[in-house]
Amino acid sequence: MAELKEARVPDIGDDKDVPVIELLVQPGDAVKKDQGLVTLESDKATMEVPAPFDGIVRELKVKVGDELSEGSVVALIEPAAGAAAAAPAPTPAPKAEAAPAPAVEARPETAPAPKAEPAPRPAAPATNAGNPSTPPVRFEADALLPGKVPHASPAVRVFARELGVDLAQVAGSARAGRITREDVQAFVKQVMAGGAAPRAAGGGGGGLDLIPWPKVDFSKFGDTERQPLSRIQKLSGANLARNWAMIPHVTQFDDADITEMEAFRKKLGEENKDVKVTPLVFLIKAAVAALKKYPAFNASLDGDELVLKKYFNIGIAVDTPDGLVVPVIRDADRKGLLELARELGEISARARDKKLTSADMQGGCFSISSLGGIGGTAFTPIINAPEVAILGVSRSAMKPVWNGSEFAPRLMLPLSLSYDHRVIDGAAAARFTSYLAQVLGDLRRLLL
Length: 448
Ligand code: CAO
Fold this sequence. Notes:
Structural class: alpha+beta
CATH topology of the largest domain: Chloramphenicol Acetyltransferase
Shape: elongated
Strand content: 15-25%
CATH class of the largest domain: Alpha Beta
Radius of gyration: 27 Å
Number of helices: 9
Helix content: 10-25%
Number of strands: 21
Largest sheet: 7 strands, mixed
Number of domains: 3
Order of helices and strands: EEEEEEEEHEHHHEHEHHEEEEEEHEEEEH
Bound molecules: oxidized coenzyme A
CATH architecture of the largest domain: 2-Layer Sandwich
């Protein structure tokens, strides 16, 4: 056996006594130069201690919880033939900053990742693209069910999140299926090449074998140009694809007679010129009333359990030039119409000015997607997991409605409620939309 060499903590700036939060390798593992050996997490950042050369880990000198500083010995490594001689002193790991990591191409392999926040669930591409040169995509339902967390270090999670990669879609090549930074890079490369990333071996049942994504040379048919997707488009597209594939959606349609509501809304608007009162605020109030009456709609699936929420946070889909975002209006049950109108105006403006934070988009119970200001008669919105239902609203229109003796002109608002059929059955959905329509038809019901 060749002489063992030490792998030490490189320069980590001013940080001292930084705890080890994760061991990334075990004795006997072959490692490549710059591959992470352990993860350290200070109050400022998460960083990996890189292997200084190729070789085989013979002994780990640390355990989770140990506190390390620059120069601490992390492992003894048997260098691969010629590796240690050729290897320079351990690459100093640049000090971890809280700034976002650069894009994958620009990111040095050894660079520490910013401090890992809890990975947003759900958030990231569920890319199912394939091409003829790759095997069919395995869409692993098991790996995406609520409660299943892909195995990866915080640094790799941050790295994946920066790239908009859903770790549930990435095959882990390391021990016990752990996903490494290289796995994420390989996944991105394969997706960018229009291919499907392979999933972890032995995925087993529950997956859908999809045929490969069509690969077409469009220029054969005429001029084209390529536009990169915005970051928001990539993230929301990934969420939408995952939610559409994973959730058995059904959409229930109904119409609400908002003739009286509209008269009241106009009056409110005239009395309160400083705030724009649109039908959406009434819908938020009515949705809260319906969620209170039908609590299964204010729930999330967690494995075999339903988590019923006792708070009423409503997500609002906002269309921005960069794509769709869903900020959340918190405690909508405790806010009046005018307060909701002000908050709606404020979050829409912040969304369009790109000033929303991720906290603004968390904690939602139920979402509303209103296309009423634009047009249309109905649509099938995609549920914003882990919520179980979403209300789509289209443009109200004056219609002749039979009142028992004659047709009367009434302002009708089309409602499209998509729901997760694993949690909600059709009868409950029909009751929910009927109740919504009743409340919107007679706002006094909000007082009940
Ligand atoms: N029927 C008729 N008119 C409606 C209406 C409806 N259902 N909803 C809104 N309107 C009217 C408003 O009263 C307003 O009229 P005035 O300008 O005369 O006052 C006008 O349409 C524009 O409203 P708005 O869109 O500015 O305001 P809003 O509160 O209805 O919606 C917001 C705010 C942020 C939700 C909206 O701007 C938006 O982004 N909508 C798109 C959401 C989206 O893309 N959803 C699809 C996601 S994919 O599932």
